[in-house]
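Appendix B. Chain record.
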Amino acid sequence: MADQSAPWTWDTTSIYDLSVEIVNEFLVEKFGKYHFYTEETNGDTIKFWIPRKLSRMEKAHLKAKGPRAGM
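Structure tokens predicted for this chain:
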């Protein structure tokens, strides 16, 4: 679960092969059920409000959730 006393921050990921729904599911798995203010920002980026920035490994796991991952 996310520590609600810690300052939260914005993070982003490329929208390629992802959707807001996929990102939200990943964030709930990672941090628990919160409102992450997940939104598509400019057609190629999804931004979200989380307790800390995602690591490179976590972002790779997120990208692997896309429907064409591993093709």
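Further analysis of this model is presented in Appendix C.
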